[in-house]
Structures are given as C-alpha cells and as structure tokens.
Amino acid sequence: QLQLAESGGGSVEVGGSLRLSCVASGYRYCKYEYDMTWYRQPPGKERVFVANIGRDGTTTYADDVKGRFTISKDSAGNTVFLQMNSLKPEDAAMYYCKTRCRTVAPGTNLTATYNDWGQGTQVTVSS
Asked: Are residues 96 and 31 in contact, defined by beta-carbon separation less than 8 angstroms?
C-alpha cells in the first residue's frame, strides 16, 4: 500500500505558474510497471487525465496541457512533480496524483494492478 500526499496548489493569476508535488510513502513491489499520473477535476465536472510518467521516464500529456505543463519525477520514483505554466481559467481544478503498480497477485502467477490516490490539492486561476 502507498500513501500519496500532494502539495503546491494555490491561487494564481491567468498566465501564472505553479509547481505541484506528490510524495509517495509505503511500499509496493511493482514487478512489471510503475506509473505516476496527474488527474484534475474542475468543479461540477468529471475527473480527467492530465499527465503521466512511466518507470522509464516516458511522458504523456492531455492535449489541452501539452506545451504548458511538464511532468517529472525524482530518481527513486518517490516523488512526482507537475510544473504548470501559462495557466488559464479552465485549468482551475482539484489536482490528484495517482500511482499504478502492476505486479504479481499474492499467491498466484497472475498480474494484478493497484491504484493509489492522493487527497488532492486545489488550484485556482483568476482572471
């Protein structure tokens, strides 16, 4: 089980920047895959994907943040960051980090997937 703690949210003006952090504690043995992902949920809307970074450092982004946001992690894979530049009002949301661990299910030779979520950090963008 992993515990995730986001930080770095706040209120900024349009065009401003924020850097979010998410620190993972605890342990999972992730034999096959370990991803760290950022999601966001605007008020009254569904949670959506923002950015992902894989164990090998490969990154993917939602189209509406590409070129403005950058996801990164520390070498140990314990912390994931989201650098957000040129913020727009539509970027305002609760931002969540998530880990995905793909490994061997206990007592089996089958693949299991474990998703662990943080509690979120609020980002507000004012115009």
From this structure: no
Task: Name the residue type at position 4.
Answer: L
CA atoms within 13 Å, Cβ hemisphere of 103: 16
CB 19 within 8 A of CB 81: yes
Query: CA 62 to CA 113: how far, in whole Å?
Result: 23
pLDDT of residue 75: 85
Q: In the 8-state DSSP scheme, what is residue 78?
A: S
The strand pair at 18-26 and 69-73 is best described as unpaired
Alpha carbons within 13 A on the beta-carbon side of 116: 20
User: Could you read off the pLDDT of 51-87 as tens digits, one per residue?
Assistant: 999 999 999 999 999 999 999 999 888 999 999 999 9
